Amino acid sequence: MFPYAIEDFLLKTYGHWTKIEKLNGVNEGKGISCFRLFIGDKSFIIKKAKEKREYDVYNSLSRFFKDKKILIPFVYYTYHEETDYWVVIEDVSGHLPKERWTGDREQIKLLFNLHFNTWNKTLNIDKPFNFSWDEKLIKNSLSLFPSGLEEAIEQLHSKSETIFSPFCCISGDPNPTNWGIRNNNELVLFDWERIGYASPAIDLAITMPGLGTIDKSLEFNIASTYISFWKDSSVEFPYSVQELTEQIVMAKMWSALDFLVNNADTLKEELLVFHITQLHEKFKIGLS
Prior knowledge:
- By secondary structure, this protein is an alpha+beta fold.
- The chain has two domains: about 5-90, Phosphorylase Kinase, domain 1 (2-Layer Sandwich); about 95-285, Aminoglycoside phosphotransferase (APH), C-terminal lobe (Aminoglycoside 3'-phosphotransferase, Chain: A, domain 2, Alpha-Beta Complex).
- It contains ten helices and ten strands.
- It has helices spanning about 5-15, 55-60, 60-65, 105-115, 135-145, 150-160, 200-205, 215-230, 240-265, 270-285; strands at about 20, 35-40, 40-50, 75-80, 85-90, 95, 170, 180, 185-190, 195-200.
- It has a five-stranded antiparallel sheet, with helices on both faces. Strands 6-8-9 form a three-stranded antiparallel sheet, covered by helices on one side.
- A hairpin with a 5-residue loop joins strand 8 (about 180) and strand 9 (about 185-190).
- It comes from Priestia endophytica DSM 13796.
- This is Aminoglycoside phosphotransferase domain-containing protein.
């Protein structure tokens, strides 16, 4: 099931495993697989991917992340062969409770640490994820939604250029289910398949469940908390709270649209219809 090198490492270091669980929530169509493996009273996550980005995070950047207080799972072993990239990492069993899914300060601080420490810099990442909105996304978006949304989607497209500016390194997918809590209550961010360069607004938007709030109150609170960390730093953040709020709104709508377009073929029909309906309503309300 696993490469010999990984099995040999686990056996010599920890002993025979007693149980393996295949985990859901990964894109197997893109060659990604993920397992939870038990050895005695200890468990590990073993993940394989075809892209090298996440491997680079755990293989090359884990020390940098630790030094900058960007908490990610502990790394036990990394291995690659041809186009398969494997990591054996900590199984962070505690989930982020739902009452912390709405602008958690510790969550925003970790993202700030990532953004601040990579501001106008690049990291050693192979083929960073490309955050963009191309004509193909517009075309596929229009095919999913009822007629009459062309103007609203074009408006969002024309206003969204700022969120793709490569200010810093972003996680790319810090959604509420990609956070874990250690036994010592430390908050840890995992799933780095979409690490790349863009505006902090994308990370901040994706921390929110659903499509955000109609009155933008949650988006405003997240922007306010985030900018408060910049005010205590040596670097001036280039946008006001209100400007960042608007960028978070746009980033959330773009990320939802991008998710639907790229997963329309694999989502269950009732779930797809639900998401399309929700986003349709958001577009009708407008960006202003």
